[in-house]
Amino acid sequence: MEDRNITLKTKPGAPLHVSIAHHQPQDERQLSDTLVVFLNGLVLPRAGWFETVEHLSKLRSDSNQPTPALLCYDRYGQGKSDSDPFDIQDSPYGHDARAAIADLHQLLIQVSQDELHRQVEDLRIILVCNSIGCPLARLYAAEHPGRVGAYLFLDSMMANTDFVSVFPDPAEPDFDESQLAEGVTAEGLRHARDKFREFFHPTVPNSERLDRRNLRELLPHASEPALPNAPGGDPPLLTVVGHDWDEFADQCEKGPLAVPKAIINTYMNPAWGTYNEGLTRLVQVTSDVKIAKGCGHFIQKDDPAFVAGKIDGILNELRNRGQ
C-alpha cells in the first residue's frame, strides 16, 4: 500500500494519513469500480489492517482473481493524522460520529477523483469495520444511500448501551446475591461495573476526541434502520462476525480490566451476542452471526487471515451475483 497525507477541502491545514492500494486487475473490467474501505475502531489505527490486506492480496493473486482498490485511513486525532481542527481545544470532547462520517465522505470524494479517476457516485463501496467503525458504517450508509454494496462487521461496538448497565447493580434494593450464577459475586459485579464505566462508558473521553455521548440516540436499535440498497438498487451484502466468547472472557480476566470470566460469560457475552443477532436483521436476507474462533474484540489483530477470507468471500459473492 502507498502511504500519503490527504488534506480535506472541508478542513484545510489538517491532513489525514491514508494508505491506498490500487486496483490489481486480472481483467481490467473486474472490480475496477469497487473500493474497499477499512473503518477502524478507537484503539487500532489504520496500520491494524495491514496484515489483513497482505493476506487478501495473496488470496486474490493465488486464485487469479482481481483485487479492488483498498483504502485504510486514520481518522482525525488517530494514528498519524492531525487532530480535528474544528475541535474545541479546552474540552475533553471533540467531533461526534456525524462529523466523522462527513469527513469520510469528503475523503472518498477526493480519493475517487484524485486516485481512482472516478466520481464517488460511480463507485461501489465495501465497508470493512471493527468496533465503533460498524456504527459509523451504518450512519454513513443512511446518510449516503445507494453507495455501499457490502459490509463486513467485525465485533461491532454495541452502540445503544452504556456498557455498565449490562451488569446487575448490587446497590439496587431487590438485588439478591444468592441468585447469582456460579462464580459471580456482588463484589465482582461492583468491580466489573466500575471497570467498564472507567474504560467504556460513552462519557469517557478518548485520545481521538471522538465524542460517543450521542451514539445511543443516533443508533438506538441493533436491527434498525435497515441498511439501504446497494448501487443499482440491489440488496447489500452483510456479514456479521462476533468474537469468540471464551477468548474474549479470558482477555477481560487477564487484561487490565481483571473482570472474572464468569461475569463476562454470564452478562456481557450474551448481551453482545443478542446485539450481533440484531445486526443481521439490517438486511432482508439474513444470515447467522459468524464467530471468529480464538479472537477477542480486535479480530483483525487476532486473525487477519480470517478477515481476509471473509472479504474474499464477499468479493466472490458480488461476482457470482453479476455485480
UniProtKB/TrEMBL annotation:
<dbReference type="InterPro" id="IPR000073">
    <property type="entry name" value="AB_hydrolase_1"/>
</dbReference>
<dbReference type="InterPro" id="IPR029058">
    <property type="entry name" value="AB_hydrolase_fold"/>
</dbReference>
<dbReference type="Pfam" id="PF12697">
    <property type="entry name" value="Abhydrolase_6"/>
</dbReference>
<feature type="domain" description="AB hydrolase-1">
    <location>
        <begin position="36"/>
        <end position="308"/>
    </location>
</feature>
<keyword id="KW-0378">Hydrolase</keyword>
<protein>
    <submittedName>
        <fullName>Alpha/Beta hydrolase protein</fullName>
    </submittedName>
</protein>
<dbReference type="GO" id="GO:0016787">
    <property type="term" value="F:hydrolase activity"/>
</dbReference>
